[in-house]
Design a protein that fits this description.
The complex is a heterodimer. Chain A is an alpha/beta fold. Chain A is built from 10 helices and 10 strands. Chain A has a single domain, classed as 3-Layer(aba) Sandwich (Rossmann fold). Chain A has a 6-stranded mixed sheet with strand order 6-7-8-3-9-10, sandwiched between helices. In chain A, strands 2-1-4-5 form a 4-stranded antiparallel sheet, covered by helices on one side. Chain B has a domain of about 210 residues. Chain B contains 12 helices and 2 strands; from the N terminus they run αααααβααααβααα. In chain B, strands 1-2 form a two-stranded antiparallel sheet. Classes of the chains: A alpha/beta, B mainly alpha. At the A-B interface, helix 2 and helix 3 of A face helix 7 and helix 8 of B. The complex binds adenosine-5'-diphosphate and magnesium ion. The site of magnesium ion has 2 residues of chain A, from helix 1.
Chain lengths: ~260, ~300
């Protein structure tokens, strides 16, 4: 479903701020894979997801989604294959627009946007039904401005918008990190539910090693722009947090420097 | 008071015409979150294009259409500068504004002022007949509000709103934000040129400098409308209407302060200061709120 081959990305090349964020990433995901990603601060996790989305062009390598080489496509043209939830709850929705307007924008991802009326009554009924799955009471607030919602509500809505078009690939970048523990758990549960129900292929960055172990069928660990550990199946299920910390120390020759990650151990 | 009341129809007509301009500014400033300075040139482009075409024998309606399209073209140039050349929007607008100065002089044949007598041509409106001028400009404003209400309710219109509101979100949902900014700039400047074409007919001439400071008047109209009517006018069509009312109120106030003896040359300074203060208010409010919540947090600790 996804094939990332030999991808390199350096920021601010040739300046004092030069930063090699991705150092030759090779990664292949089968349809239905749910991969959790962990790694230290600045390991290149977000850069990997952003490269797949086309937020910036990569220096070298290729990215193929479901047989389509998207390496040179601009961000908005890749969007039809992707669903994304960002770390910042403000990023994934348009604050000044209503809930139903945001949903209708997401519903037209990958479609031509013409001079037809933006929301039909039939859609409205569908949105209400979808929102009720969130269990947050948003189904009665279709014409509330998204800016009035809490961070957790916004993130749940963003998640719904990310999956409503059955993306080839769902990308979650620490999407619960900014939420309080209870809301974070709810949003994570919803993510798991949507991924399972729709048999989505997904990648989830998390700083919570327990979550990384519990969720998904495969786990990768990144360090200095490389994938240093890639585990799946039974072996992954049997991992413990201590195993992961030890693995990291062995493979990178240093202790894990993700403070938030250690805290959430 | 008597003289003031009897002098009202003029500012009302002018205010509606500038309200149309303000609706153009609304598209860039409020919907796309871009401060577009092209409009200072586009207002003149609309005016001189209309005058020269009508004086050359063209039907007024057709001339207005062409003036509108000329404005659209100016917006397209700014859009290309901004999205294809990567020039910041404000600078892109200033560059086009400068280009338009030369273009406008070309259109007039290097004259800084071109007359258009209502006695000679079948104009749609003129300050000679103020009630008709108010009626015609109000009809234009109403039609534009209706069209904009429709357009911003369409799929494309929604994608423009999303572009202005959150570009990351827009692109993640497959929206071509560069194209949308261009569409917005094109429509906005088209409206501004149309307003210039109406203004030229109203005053019976077009002047190379008729758009100088137009952005400030447009912003003033938008802001006055929001401050006075924002609480009651929530619907998009009403928000546009508020901008038109803002234009009317602006011109009535201007007339009043002029009658009170203010030097006409000081007007621009006054308008600019008023706009600066009104733009500052939401910023100061935010600062105050932050300081307050900051204190509360420290108080708790
Ligand atoms: N847009 C950018 N410009 C410059 N440097 C960046 C940019 N994005 C990320 N980086 C740098 O690249 C490295 C990898 O960042 P990132 O992928 O965000 O790490 P993480 O694994 O914590 O998500 C970091 O050193 C970061 O500072
Ligand atoms: Mg990150």
């Amino acid at each position: 479903m996804l094939k990332v081959s030999g991808v390199y990305k350096t920021f601010n090349k040739g300046t004092v701020n030069e930063k090699k964020a991705l150092n030759g990433i090779d990664l292949e995901l089968k349809a239905g894979d749910f991969v959790t990603i962990i790694g230290g601060n600045g390991a290149g996790k977000s850069t990997l997801l952003n490269s797949i989305c086309g937020v910036f062009p990569v220096d070298r390598g290729s990215i193929v989604i479901d047989g389509n080489d998207v390496t040179s496509l601009p961000e908005h043209k890749r969007a039809k294959y992707l669903g994304r939830v960002f770390q910042d709850p403000m990023m994934g929705t348009a604050a000044d627009m209503w809930i139903e307007e945001n949903m209708s924008l997401a519903f037209r991802r990958g479609q031509r946007r013409g001079l037809k009326w933006a929301i039909t009554n039939k859609e409205r009924a569908m949105y209400r039904e979808m929102l009720s799955q969130l269990g947050l009471g948003l189904e009665d607030r279709l014409s509330s401005k998204v800016g009035l919602l809490s961070g957790g509500q916004r993130q749940a809505l963003t998640l719904l918008m990310a999956v409503m078009r059955q993306p080839k690939l769902l990308l979650l970048d620490e999407h619960t990190a900014a939420l309080d523990p209870k809301t974070a758990a709810t949003v994570l549960e919803l993510s798991e539910k949507f991924i399972n129900e729709n048999k989505l292929t997904a990648m989830m960055i998390t700083h919570n090693m327990n979550d990384a172990i519990i969720h998904g069928n495969r786990l990768i660990m990144m360090n200095e722009g490389r994938v240093i550990y890639d585990v799946s199946g039974q072996e992954k299920k049997e991992l413990t947090v201590d195993d992961l910390l030890k693995k990291f120390a062995d493979l990178s020759g240093a202790a894990l420097d993700n403070d938030r990650m250690l805290l959430s151990k | 008071m008597q003289t003031f009341l009897s002098s009202l129809p003029g500012p009302i007509a002018q205010g509606i015409i500038w309200g149309i301009m303000a609706m153009g500014v609304y598209i860039t400033f409020r919907i796309l979150d871009i401060a577009d300075l092209t409009v200072d040139g586009t207002m003149g482009t609309g005016g001189v294009t209309l005058v020269v075409l009508v004086a050359g024998g063209m039907n007024v309606g057709l001339a207005m259409l062409i003036a509108f399209l000329a404005g659209c073209a100016a917006g397209l140039v700014t859009g290309i500068f901004h999205t294809k050349f990567g020039i910041p929007a404000i600078l892109a607008g200033i560059l086009t504004q400068l280009i338009l100065y030369s273009v406008n002089l070309r259109i007039t044949g290097q004259r800084s002022n071109v007359p258009l007598s209502v006695d000679k041509y079948a104009l749609m409106l003129s300050l000679r007949n103020l009630s008709r001028a108010i009626l015609v400009s109000a009809l234009f404003a109403a039609a534009i509000i209706a069209i904009m209400y429709w357009f911003f309710g369409t799929e494309l219109g929604h994608s423009l709103r999303a572009t202005g509101c959150n570009q990351n979100m827009a692109r993640a949902n497959g929206i071509n934000t560069d194209n949308n900014k261009m569409i917005g700039l094109v429509l906005s400047n088209g409206l501004v040129a149309l307003s210039g074409a109406l203004l030229a007919q109203y005053q019976g001439f077009a002047d190379i400098n008729m758009g100088r400071g137009a952005i400030v008047i447009g912003l003033a109209a938008v802001i006055i409308g929001e401050v006075l009517l924002g609480k009651v006018f929530k619907n998009f069509a009403l928000k546009l209407l508020a901008a038109v009312f803002g234009g009317i109120i602006y011109y009535i106030v201007i007339t009043l302060v002029l009658q009170m003896g203010l030097n006409a040359n000081d007007l621009k300074m006054l308008s600019a200061l008023v706009v600066a203060v009104f733009l500052g208010i939401p910023y100061w409010q935010k600062k105050l709120r932050e300081r307050k919540s900051n204190k509360e947090v420290r108080g708790d600790a």
